[in-house]
Amino acid sequence: MKITKIEAIPVKVPLKPFLTTKTAHGEHVDSPYVIVRINTDEGLIGLGEATLAPRWSGETSQSCLAAMNQLIAPALVGKDPLNINVAIQKMDQVIKLNPFTKAAVEMALWDLAGKAAGQPVYQLLGGKVRNSIPVKTVIGAFLPEKVVELTQYFLDQGFTSFKVKVGLDLERDLERLDTVRKTIGSDMSMGIDANCGWDFSTACAALPRMEQFQLSFCEQPIQIGQHDAWKELRKFTEIPLMADESVFSVADAWEICRQRSADILSIYPGKNGGISRTVAICHLVEAAGLTCSIGSNLELGIGSAAMLHVAAAMKVIDSERFPADCLGPLFHEADLIQQPLSLGPVTAELPTAIGLGVELDEDQLKQWRTDI
Ligand SMILES: [Mg+2]
Questions:
Q1: What's the CA-to-centroid distance between 119 and ligand 1, angstroms?
Q2: Which of 5, 111, 121, 230 has its CA 20 to 30 A from that of 187?
Q3: Topology (CATH level 3) of domain 3-118+361-368
Q4: What pTM does this model have?
């Protein structure tokens, strides 16, 4: 089999007006992403999704299209789509970094490999260790009135696990946590994500004051690359620390494992540059005796499916203790796939059809396609 064409299709899908999010990085109101379709000479088509966010990885839909059309497609057209290892090598040769762009191509190749083998992707990863993946929802860094409304909305939907965005103003952060904990009661699980928003001294002051809210983790309290500060921070709190912005590459994960600067590594194919590299991080983290959790960039249907296959296959992704962020489609006006994924409220169910197990919805694609 040979790759005949790589199509990169820009889309812009808004979040539902009530479900836009706000973090220390800014507001997320719509998603300018790129859908990737890899065509082959045998008629099989692989699907991928690049969930681009300039404030996150430095990539935009324009940069993704340029990388795809000018560098990646010329390097891969005519090659064997089933040799994913060579495709990864070729992408790395023609362009550095750009994890979300490369992940879209790589997940499309896994989709193709599954379709060619007549197997779901999790089977190609060695089989599943779980059928359902516990999930959590997220409450943005809003003021108390909106926080109450949002929390009550998710409770009414049946959610039992929550992550609250903090890292802006400490007193407001405390007020928000108090509001959510009072609304959900003492039994439900709750963690926080500061998205690099605190400096070291603010984090040292914040976390001991937040222990009263029974937090199961604190995600990315401070900036990336400050391993000594992360280790020092442990002296101030018992709350387990989760690295998210700190772990894009396998090398990033290695450094965290070596330094033991976090307890949990938040990972997913987009941020890590593809399914294979998320799996590589899993093996590394397992060997180091640490834990992984599925993070998110608010994916649509294809990107979410890729996350679920990895989450199902990798034991070290401990979604039972640290539920996955895998609710992107529920936050968006459209998911761009024919059959919606089953994503909650308590557990997401693994798609079991061949490949990634999802099909592109051409009508939705037409509706949300954009010119850039
Ligand atoms: Mg995060």
A1: 32
A2: 230
A3: Enolase-like; domain 1 (3.30.390)
A4: 0.98
